[in-house]
Amino acid sequence: MPATRPLHLAVALDGPAQYDPAYYVALARLAERGALDFVTLGDCFARPGLDALAVLARVAPATERIGLVPTVTTTHTEPFHVSTAVATLDWVSRGRAGWAVGVSTTEAEASLFGRRPAAPADALWREAGEVADVVARLWDSWEDDAEIRDTSTGRFIDRGKLHHVDFRGGTFSVRGPSTVPRPPQGRPVVVVDGTAGVCREPAARYADVVLVRAGAPEQAAALREDIRRRAAAHGRDPDTLRVLVALAVDLGVGEAAPEPGLAAGPPLAGGGPHFSGGPVELAQLIAEWHSCGAVDGFRLAPIAPHRDLERIVNGTVALLQHRSLFRTFHPGGTLREHLGLARPASRYAPTTRTPASTQAGGAV
Predict the structure, then answer these.
(1) Percentage helix, strand, coil, to 5, in the chain?
(2) 3-class DSSP assignment, residue 53
(3) Structure confidence at residue 129 as a pLDDT band (50, 70, 90)
(4) Contact by Cβ (8 Å): 162, 177
């Protein structure tokens, strides 16, 4: 059936390692000008470069609407630290944060920490799912109104509205509560690449946005349906998931590589996991795949970040907007609002609270 949902578009800021924050600020502002939902910035322990989460924390005050989604590796990283770092990004961006779940699979990466050897991918993704679970619990561990901030009485927190999560997973345990108040979005957006079978289950169970890699709309539709079916089996409403095709794009066919150290894009057929062509043809591909209900949108990865992103925004997106297939402004102030996702309530907050129960926890 044809898709009736809004089209969602995001872009990856990946490319050769850069150490000037102005580089990432310029790209994020360009994406924001096109009203894209969010930008992603990849990261892993296997490559040199700046920390993606810290980079986007620098980008946050230089932008106003665009969502910011760094990759955060769950392997060798304490879940409590993942929770506080992503919550902090949500606070400094005023509700525009997400995080892409990553795992670390090699012995070389494990040796950087010296805590444990590398593990099989299926075990790492089970652990990643548990991290996503406990991170959300830690975000919920502060009720929305737990902060009192009453200077006249010196009361800062209502202890009755802070909660221990008491989570025990296969490789870690976390008691909580968090040391950071509940994020503006309640729970920042979780992004998982669900293409591989080993990560399909945690994607269906915990992700808000699932990336898939498909060479044809029929393949994308099959992946989307499988993820939605798995989500329903976990008691989730499949309509709360956004499934985006991750597509590398080269919009400079026949041109020399525009940036030092960046190879020209591969000769690729339109419609495959990589797209090679012009902005108009890319707009047509996006419109066709979305109109037939195969996907909810695309996360585009420019082969040449500055060149291709400019052509995406000024060419592809402008054409989709002209055809009324993509919005011309951000619908709200948070990433959840861009994606049409509701702000979740804290799982620990009671539906009703009597004055006595409120006072029982005391305050500090």
Answers:
(1) 40, 20, 45
(2) helix
(3) very high
(4) yes
